[in-house]
From TrEMBL:
Every JmjC domain range: 379-547
Keyword vocabulary terms for this entry: Iron, Metal-binding, Nucleus, Zinc, Zinc-finger
A Gene Ontology BP annotation from the UniProt entry: regulation of DNA-templated transcription
Protein name per the record: ZYRO0D01804p
One term under GO cellular component: chromatin
Residue ranges of the region described as Disordered: 213-232
Length: 762
């Protein structure tokens, strides 16, 4: 595998990183390779300034074999099968069919994974070309469960299946009949009864989901029995009528029997298992140890327990990076391997010397711990490639928010051990990232450049279409791997490159670069995000992509572009004209589209409209030269009183698609009546989001697009125009409220001023 290029900026280039990384030659490297390794000038050797006395961290426990997407799906499937057999055995007196392995071994020595057979059958019937059964590898979702009779009689199906598994089709038919058939029929019946063939529609939404594989992660830690007693119904979240509640014998979660779909008349005898455990919710997460380690304790743990992983068992010689790489992927791919490793990841301390390993104004190690003069220490403290400063470096757009975002504008720390891993992912909102290694063993990186993103996405969805239907934002969760050396990976035509990072080296990732990797031993890294002018179109694209998967945006892209436009009116020389024009066009297009939708809704559906307390008029009026103000004075005072609470929301999110409601949202009362009136215009974004998420389904906050969809789905005339119900007494939208987050008239005023400024720009 080819390595990414190494760039070595001069001292002057290194002191202006945004300009340097924006150079066309570097941009071309970023697009082609996805990332580059940056080696700083020889005299740049910042002292390691973590406070070893106070810095403590918790670790994630990673089971390497479960990170492989196919391994995990196969293990999920056997759990689901066993849960189904366990739940159904009491109903039909069938023999217990608990399976210990996710595969069947034939007398001929061949191995057939039950999940693989199940999913290949579904792929065949969901390829989008059912008329001629031409098989496609581009399955997006499972929507069709044909009858068992159709499956058994389709000779072309079994011919295809036989070709895929390279074995006699009769053996495969027998495996399906003996192990999968009843479970398949259950799924088909469930989807038919619910009027939807999407597996995800059979599941209930969980605030705190439990993975089907978590039973294997025995932590030895006692659970809080008081919390268990107070736990409400998994569907309605209430703990009323406890005598009408039943516990799932798989996940131990309580349910009201009348909240189930279909509801139960009484509590059944024998084992009862919920749908999320039979059908599978697809959730997977890392267990975190409650113990906190110091760096010394963690290094000693590595020396005592993990050093054997990095040496040749026969000779005692250290393994090379290439040998470690091969060994790592063997552990990931081998389902029978149960190797677990520990990783201190996404660490964000709060005290002096705990936020970053770079020099800072808040903490200076004892003189005996550093080898530089006071002047050099101050220079390192202020250097733009100090990751505490890079997000705010000249040319980066993230300062336009005038707030800190943990993990993006404030570095996160990563303390690695042998084979601890970071799974395939894109950076938040497709921003660029910089990762610096302070000390320790090499970190191995893999990059998939933006040109191969679609192929990679398609490969992963094709391998596990049911998993992506249940977890559409799976690749944003950082829990999934596939080896870049895998035959399927290569066959898909995905470009991939490698880097080996050593201490005092940076890895720079560019927009829409999937990256993953592992640590070859103990090391200490930190990472932060930043932007270039060329990133803006990627940021806009991320908003649409996040909406399709239900992932929350970290910041409001509309607000960022709007702030660039506002700032350009005051300081025309601050940004490149091309950036301002790009932001101007995007803001105008979004505004016009939203206003058109609002006018349509107000003329046909909505009767009430309000303006929230935080308006753009306040933003614009309270701006001061050289100091970006994005809130009105009252809001700013409230924010200062609250402090920098990571749990505080800055934006209002749509309940359905999780997108940020930048201009307006609709408060929709599901039952059509507003029995409990709420004055939401003075609420903070956090209070609004909590109101929508903790009201037991009575009301929703909907973005304009989702509200329009709701109206169309509810009542449509022949001309496909918005209409109201004929019976005013049952009008489901009668009490719905349109709420402006920003005043459109003020936005048009800003655009008018910015447009004039652009015309006069020389």
């Amino acid at each position: 595998m080819d390595h990414v290029p190494i760039i070595s900026p001069s001292e002057s280039e290194f002191a202006n990183p945004i300009d340097y990384l924006s150079e066309p030659s570097i941009q071309r490297l970023g697009r082609h390779y996805g990332m580059v390794k940056l080696i700083p000038p020889a005299n740049f050797k910042p002292p390691f300034c973590i406070n070893r006395e106070t810095f403590k961290f918790h670790v994630r426990v990673q089971n390497l074999s479960e990170l492989n997407i196919l391994n995990r799906c196969r293990l999920f499937f056997i759990k689901q099968l066993n849960n189904y057999n366990r739940a159904s055995s009491g109903k039909n007196n069938a023999n217990d069919k608990t399976l210990s392995n996710p595969y069947v071994k034939l007398s001929t020595g061949e191995t057939v994974y039950l999940y693989d057979l199940f999913i290949e059958i579904l792929k065949y019937f969901n390829d989008g070309e059912n008329n001629n059964r031409k098989r496609s590898r581009n399955l997006q979702r499972i929507i069709n469960f044909p009858s068992l009779q159709e499956i058994s009689r389709d000779t072309r199906l079994w011919k295809n299946i036989s070709h895929i598994f390279k074995m006699d089709y009769k053996s495969l038919q027998e495996i399906f009949a003996n192990y999968i058939e009843n479970y398949y029929e259950y799924l088909a019946t469930q989807t038919k009864n619910r009027g939807s063939q999407h597996l995800s529609k059979l599941l209930y939404q969980e605030e705190y989901p439990k993975s089907l594989l978590s039973d294997d992660d025995a932590s030895g830690e006692e659970e809080d029995s008081e919390d268990e007693e107070d736990e409400g119904c998994a569907v309605c979240n209430r703990n009323t009528k406890p005598t009408k509640m039943i516990l799932c014998d798989s996940c131990d979660k309580p349910f009201h029997i009348f909240c189930l779909s279909p509801p139960l008349d009484s509590i059944p005898k024998g084992d009862w298992i919920c749908n999320n455990c039979i059908i599978g919710n697809g959730y997977y997460g890392f267990r975190e140890e409650t113990r906190h380690y110091s760096l010394e304790e963690f290094q000693n743990l590595w020396n005592n327990n993990e050093k054997s992983l990095t040496t040749n068992a026969a000779t005692g010689e250290p393994l090379s990076i290439e040998q470690l790489e091969e060994k790592f992927w063997q552990h990931v791919d081998d389902m029978e391997n149960s190797l677990t490793v520990k990783y201190g990841a996404d660490l964000h301390g709060e005290g002096p010397g705990e936020i970053s390993g770079f020099p800072s104004k808040d903490y200076k190690p004892p003189e005996s711990k550093i080898k530089c003069s006071d002047q050099d220490f101050e220079n390192y403290t202020n250097h733009p490639m100090n990751l505490l400063n890079l997000p705010d470096a000249k040319g980066s757009l993230l300062p336009m928010f005038d707030r800190k975002i943990s993990g993006m504008t404030i570095p996160w720390i990563y303390v690695g051990s042998t084979f601890s891993t970071f799974c395939w992912h894109l950076e938040d909102q497709y921003t660029l990232s910089a990762n610096y290694q302070h000390e320790g063993a090499p970190k191995v990186w893999y990059s998939i450049p933006e040109g191969s993103c679609d192929r990679f996405n398609q490969l992963m969805k094709d391998l596990a279409p049911d998993l992506f239907e249940k977890q559409p934002d799976l690749l944003h969760q950082l829990v999934t791997l596939i080896s870049p050396y895998d035959e399927k990976f290569k066959k898909a035509g995905i470009k991939c490159f490698k880097a080996v990072q050593q201490p005092n080296e940076y890895i720079i990732t560019f927009p829409k670069c999937y990256h993953a990797g592992f640590n070859s031993g103990y090391n200490f890294n930190e990472a932060v995000n930043f932007t270039l002018d060329s990133w803006v179109p990627y940021g806009v694209e991320a908003v649409a992509d996040y909406r399709s998967t239900g992932k929350h945006c970290v910041f409001d892209m509309f607000e960022l572009m709007l702030n660039v436009v506002i700032e350009s009116v005051h300081q025309s020389s601050k940004f490149q004209r091309s950036l301002v024009e790009n932001c101007f066009r995007e803001v105008r297009q979004i505004l016009n589209s939203n206003v058109k939708t609002i006018e349509q809704l107000l003329s046909s559906v909505l009767r009430k409209k309000f303006v929230l307390g935080r308006t753009v008029r306040d933003e614009f009026a309270h701006r001061r030269k050289g100091n970006l103000v994005t809130q009105d004075s009252q809001y700013s005072q409230e924010q200062q009183q609250r402090g920098s609470d990571d749990d505080e929301d800055f934006d209002v999110f749509c309940t359905k698609c999780k997108t940020i409601c930048s201009l307006a949202f609709v408060l929709h009362y599901k039952n059509g009546s507003n029995r409990k009136r709420r004055k939401i215009q003075s609420m903070t974004p956090t209070q609004l989001n909590e109101l929508a998420n903790n009201n037991n389904g009575e009301l929703e906050i909907l973005c304009l697009d989702d509200y329009v969809k709701l109206v169309y789905d509810s009542d449509i005339d022949d001309q496909r125009t918005l209409v109201k119900g004929d019976d005013e007494d049952i009008d489901p939208f009668e009490n719905d409220e349109l709420n402006y987050v920003r005043d459109p008239d003020e936005l048009y005023h800003i655009l008018n001023m910015a447009g004039k400024a652009l015309l006069g720009w020389t």
